[in-house]
Amino acid sequence: MEEGYIQCSQFLYGVQEKLGVMNKGVVYALWAYEAQNSDELSFREGDALTILRRKDEVETDWWWARLGDREGYVPRNLLGLYPRIKPRQRTLA
């Protein structure tokens, strides 16, 4: 194993466990999602969602969230602690 692998791995697992808990439950959409069912919530990339419930008896990969005045299930794999950073386009002058 490379030097620092264990510490990096522990950090990333810790972030994953705290997602939807820290920062008062606020997470950011890393990609857009269009609801497929009436109990799901659509969102755009960069939207700030508040996680109200992370897991229940049935759903582990979908969390219950609020966006504005709407609530619904969201796929947790599209969420992050911070908005996704896009590289700047450089122009040649």
UniProtKB/TrEMBL annotation:
Key word Repeat present: yes
InterPro entries noted in UniProt: Ankyrin_rpt-contain_sf (IPR036770), ASPP1/2 (IPR047163), SH3-like_dom_sf (IPR036028), SH3_domain (IPR001452)
Species this protein is from: Ovis ammon polii
GO CC terms in record: nucleus
Protein name: SH3 domain-containing protein
GO molecular function, one term: p53 binding
GO biological process: apoptotic process; regulation of apoptotic process
Bilayer-spanning residue ranges: none
Annotated localization: Nucleus
Record flagged with keyword Membrane: no
Annotated ranges, domain SH3: 22-84
Keywords, sorted A to Z: ANK repeat, Apoptosis, Nucleus, Repeat, SH3 domain
